[in-house]
Amino acid sequence: MAKKKVTPIAKLNAKQENLAPHTEEGVDQFLTTNQGLRINDNQNSLKAGERGATLLEDFILREKITHFDHERIPERIVHARGEAAHGFFQVYESMSKYTKAGFLQDPGKQTPVFVRFSTVAGSRGSTDLARDVRGFAVKFYTEEGNYDLVGNNMPVFFIQDAMKFPDFIHAVKPEPHNEIPQAASAHDTFWDFVSIAPESMHMIMWAMSDRAIPRSLRMMEGFGVHTFRFINAAGKSSFVKFHWKPLLGVHSVAWDEAQKISGKDPDFHRRDLWNAIESGAYPEWELGVQIVAEKDEHKFPFDLLDPTKLIPEEVVPVMRIGKMVLNRNPDNFFAETEQVAFHPGHIVPGIDFTNDPLLQGRLFSYTDTQLSRLGSPNFHEIPINRPIAPVHNNQRDGHMRQTINRGETAYEPNTISNGCPYQAKMKEGGFTSYEERIDAKKIRGRSSSFFDHFSQATLFYNSQSEVERTHIVNALRFELGKVTRTDIRERMVGILTQIDKSLALRVATGLGLPVPSKPETPINHIRPADGEVRRYEPKAVKQQVINSPALSMSNTVKNTVKSRQIAFLTADGVAGKEVAKMKADLLAAGAQVQLIAPHLGKIKTAEGDHLEVDQSFLGAASVLFDAVYVPGGKTSADALVKEPAALHFINEAYKHCKAIAVTGDGLKVLKATYLETEGNDPGLLINKSSKDFINAIAQHRFWEREAIDTIPA
Ligand code: HDD
């Protein structure tokens, strides 16, 4: 498909214009009460005498305190911690062959979007770097109404049926007796649940992989997870899986690094997204679709309705059909990011659901949760949630109603108002549900086509590079190491043997456990329902591919350093020319540079100029950067050799496999660290060109170093 260049627009898009009347700014204005009364004294309450009691009459104090007392709303039960941005989506070519969705027809049209990223398990104030799934929720403000693609950064889910969602979430959230641990799955209840829910094993592989600790929200994929339907103008339906492909590639941090970032800057992802947009490095993703003809529904060794399965890209290629650009930060976190309400049930003509039992449950849950979270069925009137398409119906009243509906009638059909507002025909954009034939008994049960719980977990593990596998092993050792009950650990080791025996053995070794010759059958822990035969026993089905390179992050895009953060370690006497050249070349390649020095303010270069310091060693940390450069300059190098924080900075950056460059006397500093300077490390550049350094940074990490790790950082 031809890729067209889309350039961000500076003017407000349709949604931003729609938000504009709701914005407020106090510049050059008087301070007022909520009733518009100008306030003369905002420092003191009204009292009976200077030293007397405060008077009940003080309506200004009462209004202020009352509003403050009610400032908080319930946080989301899941995905509480999040950050969002505005932008637009533009399709490359009309998708009319597959769907009549208006926003997927015209390559000349930009559809406004608001995208919220999130972690799942933690509270609103929890760290960004938790090992967790990331939410990736996109609201398209289309001319046919809002379309929400409420996905995650992993293409599958832990459970197959919405019936299990509250149980699963209760298991992963902090334990109910002591509210520990925050934003972490490394505890007994989570692993107890998954150790007897084999359907979760594919997603467990993803969650234990580095996908769960992204370098940036801008560097992760997004997935619609479920199979949806596209419907074209002729009424023909195809199945579709949605993907978001980041143009910067898919990159992660190291687990040790993630834990340190959580202390140094718990807002790391939030800040990174905000700064990237403020600096004009707009995050971009291509929307990808995997399309399956209706007649091919049963051609896969898994059920398309099963949300614990993906369609390997090597079996059905991902067609990249358009681009999304995030180019504006919200004006107000609460009004926009917190109050935005997503719902997989917000669809437009041309898109429809399938019977995926997880999706079906979600279709209930999202409106329901907004009622308690946002407090009223009028949450669609909150500015960020308002569609740009006109809204006319007979829904009325309720808490905080904003719309002033005129006219005598609030019912349809009617004669008094000439039948208005009236139903829309399909050709007028009226939505009709896809007419799917259903002829079945009503049962509470699960299809046997959902019972292959391990084959795709194995496929994922097989598809990982050696380094990625080691990271999965270490993640499992870490997580299960935090589990206090040995029987849960043992059960997990047993269940891992079903995925890969060597994986189970490596995890077991770390836990000091034997690998059971015959793993316990998890199903033994579920009391069968009345009349139920044991139907949940996992069964393996041969997959179409045994390896899917698309699943490995090691095969991702590695051709850009755009928006990467590079630390320059400097002190008085630094070689100013070297700094200037390296900085200019890095900036030209799109990277960002910060000067770190023993003190804030300015440092003097060897040439006698002054350079502004961005951070002192006290505030800076290697884990907040992608690469390190130590320029020459004798006095500077001598000072850094005596600066333990500088040496630690380099050791730690090396341990986390980052590119490190030194020029001139910078080598002296390197020699004072634990690093091996004589070796053949492609990520360690001694007196090499800025071009070489840029190429090394673009590789993201030199993970091979982990195998020979001798750095005690
Ligand atoms: Fe969900 C929020 C994604 C299964 C019930 N979900 C929520 C958000 C994302 C997802 C990204 C945050 C939206 C935002 O930023 O405001 N959820 C998923 C994905 C799922 C999934 C990709 C599986 C494929 N969710 C799921 C199930 C249920 C829910 C099975 C319930 C039956 N999800 C909710 C919720 C939330 C939510 C309780 C909490 C806050 C909200 O909806 O607005 O309704």
UniProtKB/TrEMBL annotation:
Matching CDD domains: catalase_clade_2, GATase1_catalase
Any one of the GO CC terms: cytosol
Plastid in keyword set: no
UniProt keyword terms in alphabetical order: Heme, Hydrogen peroxide, Iron, Metal-binding, Oxidoreductase, Peroxidase
Catalase core domain ranges (all copies): 32-420
Cofactor names: heme
Gene Ontology MF term list: catalase activity; heme binding; metal ion binding
One GO BP annotation of this record: hydrogen peroxide catabolic process
Annotated EC: 1.11.1.6
Lineage top rank: taxon: Bacteria
Reactions that this protein is recorded to catalyse: 2 H2O2 = O2 + 2 H2O
Positions bound to heme: R76, R116, F165, R362, Y366, R373
Catalytic residues identified in the record: H79, N152
Enzyme class: oxidoreductase
SUPFAM superfamilies reported for this sequence: Class I glutamine amidotransferase-like (SSF52317), Heme-dependent catalase-like (SSF56634)
InterPro entries, sorted: Catalase, Catalase_clade2, Catalase_clade2_helical, Catalase_core, Catalase_haem_BS, Catalase_immune_responsive, Catalase_large_C, Catalase_sf
3'-histidyl-3-tyrosine (His-Tyr) crosslink site(s): H343-Y366
Cited function: Decomposes hydrogen peroxide into water and oxygen; serves to protect cells from the toxic effects of hydrogen peroxide.
Entry's family note: Belongs to the catalase family. HPII subfamily.
Entry protein name: Catalase
The organism of origin for this protein: Chitinophaga arvensicola
Lineage, top ranks: Bacteria, Pseudomonadati, Bacteroidota, Chitinophagia, Chitinophagales
